[in-house]
Specification:
heterodimer, A: 258 residues, six-stranded mixed β-sheet, three-stranded antiparallel β-sheet, 9 strands
Chain lengths: 258, 259
């Protein structure tokens, strides 16, 4: 679905964010991009979305550029528009006729569990509900590739777990390809099929870990085993202790930006 | 209860001040050409009702025309600036120069150029000139204060400039535009009155002219009546614009919620 080949990105202030970054995500795969804050994973995601252009290297979409859905760390909703109009935005921008867009947006809201909240404004919704609207907006244009930038980092653990399960369900139902940026070992061990461990300065992939099936619960032995593998890879990469967040259980973490 | 006090207390203050005013002017027999009693002002207002309301209407219409023209021009220019950094850098300094030059100083030129036969147009232009700048700067700020992630989203979905402007930038800028309009609306009235004074007494028009005329004749009670009408007009313009702001933002903007 997407291939990054020796991609480099330097910020205007001269800091090298990424160097020799290479990875691929296959069709219908659920891949986590895991690393401490500041390792460049958000930059990698923006490059994958085409919102940034690489200074060196190539980004290819072997099957042609897919329809992309993007979920930010913040819900990033339009405060002046109700939930339905927010979800409708991608359809409006793509000139989908209003009546059809309304129906599709309402259906998508229902799929993320927000039936009945079509006319609610963002300020009337909880943090978790706002993130659901944001996910619905990303799904409204029926993307093949869904990119998420630490979407649950600002949510409490209960809400985060519920949203994680919903994301898995939507991924299976829609046959989506998902690239999920996170700094949570437990989240990546449960949600994804494969984890790309990133280390900072400059950001590159330190380990590519395929996770075994059978992780049918957050506390299933296979999930715990996956967490051990990921933590070991992080230790090997030497990133634990540098930023101090990589090995801390997700529930203990406060918000942090990538 | 709180609401009641908000209204009752200022009314009480007004009643006390007016009573004291009325009593002291009668008690010390203050000449009406120095300070007329409130009752004398009311009498002057009633005696000059037709001419004062005509002047009020003229001042009001000229102010509103100038103000609406200024809003349209400022909005158009702010949008143009948001589309092209080059145009903004080329033209913005002139918008600043236009603003920092006092409108009283430009008034004679404008009046001569447009001519006294089109006096209302000249006055509206001067009112608009002074209202233009706050609307322009606040709208510019609004158009620049858009959530950058929302702009990215528009780019991701291949939005055109016009779509981005309509769907994302303009709604984001609306609270800023309305705030600029509140400032602009009130100072448009100041600009109009200043322009009337600059135009002088050769051209009977609005309330400012009535003030000049009545004070020249030492009809100070009429001067006060015209002044009171100007104050009422200013408050009304501000109130209507505040109401418009509240109505447009009541569903989503913090400034209008619970207000």
């Amino acid at each position: 679905m997407i291939e990054l080949n020796a991609v480099a990105k330097r910020f205007p202030n001269g800091v090298v964010a990424l160097r020799e970054l290479s990875f691929t995500v296959a069709q219908k795969e659920f891949v986590s991009l895991l690393g401490p804050s500041g390792c460049g994973k958000s930059t990698a995601l923006r490059l994958a979305a085409g919102l940034l252009t690489p200074d060196a290297g190539r980004i290819d979409y072997p099957g042609g550029k897919p329809e992309i859905g993007f979920v930010f760390q913040e819900p990033t909703l339009m405060p002046w528009a109700d939930a339905l109009a927010n979800v409708r935005l991608p359809l409006d921008l793509k000139h989908v006729p209003r009546s059809e867009a309304e129906v599709r947006a309402a259906d998508t809201l229902a799929r993320v569990g927000l039936k009945g909240f079509e006319r609610a404004f963002p300020r009337e919704l909880s943090g978790g509900m706002k993130m659901r609207v944001s996910i619905a907006r990303a799904l409204a244009a029926r993307p093949q590739l869904l990119l998420l930038d630490e979407p649950f980092a600002a949510l409490d653990e209960i809400t985060r777990n519920a949203l994680g399960d919903d994301l898995l369900r939507l991924w299976r139902e829609d046959g989506l390809t998902v690239l999920f940026v996170t700094h949570s070992v437990s989240e990546s061990s449960y949600l994804s099929q494969r984890v790309l461990v990133m280390t900072p300065r400059p950001g590159h992939i330190a380990a590519d870990i395929a996770l075994p099936p059978g992780r049918d619960g957050r506390l299933a032995p296979a999930t715990i085993e996956a967490q051990r593998k990921i933590s070991d890879a992080l230790n090997m990469a030497g990133s634990v202790g540098v930023e101090g967040s990589a090995s801390v259980p997700a529930s203990d973490q406060k918000r942090s930006s990538a | 209860m709180k609401r009641l006090l908000d209204i009752a207390l200022p009314v009480l203050v007004a009643a006390l001040v007016i009573s004291a005013w009325q009593w002291s002017t009668t008690h010390w027999q203050v000449p009406t050409y120095v300070l007329p009693a409130p009752s004398a002002i009311v009498t002057a207002f009633l005696n000059n009702f037709a001419s004062l309301t005509a002047a009020l209407t003229a001042t009001f219409l000229i102010t509103i025309a100038g103000f609406l023209g200024a809003v349209a021009a400022a909005l158009a220019l702010a949008v143009l600036f948001s589309q092209s950094r080059l145009i903004e850098r080329s033209l913005y300094p002139y918008a600043v120069i236009l603003q920092v030059t006092p409108v009283v100083a430009i008034a004679p030129l404008i009046l001569i150029w447009i001519g006294f036969e089109h006096i209302t147009l000249a006055l509206a232009l001067l009112a608009g000139l002074i209202a233009f700048f706050p609307v322009l700067t606040s709208t510019m700020l609004g158009l620049k204060s858009v959530d950058s992630n929302l702009m990215d989203l528009a780019r991701l979905y291949g939005a055109s400039r016009w779509q981005t402007l309509r769907n994302v930038q303009m709604p984001s800028a609306l609270p800023y535009l309305l705030s600029g309009m509140k400032t602009g609306g009130v100072i448009a009235l100041i600009g109009e009155v200043t322009a009337e004074f600059a135009a002088g007494s050769g051209t009977a028009t609005g309330l400012a002219w009535r003030i000049t005329e009545s004070s020249n004749r030492l009809e100070i009670a009429t001067t006060f009546a015209a002044l009171a009408l100007l104050a009422v007009l200013g408050v009304a313009i501000f109130a209507v614009l505040s109401l418009l702001e509240w109505w447009l933002l009541r569903r989503w903007h913090e400034s209008a919620i619970g207000a």
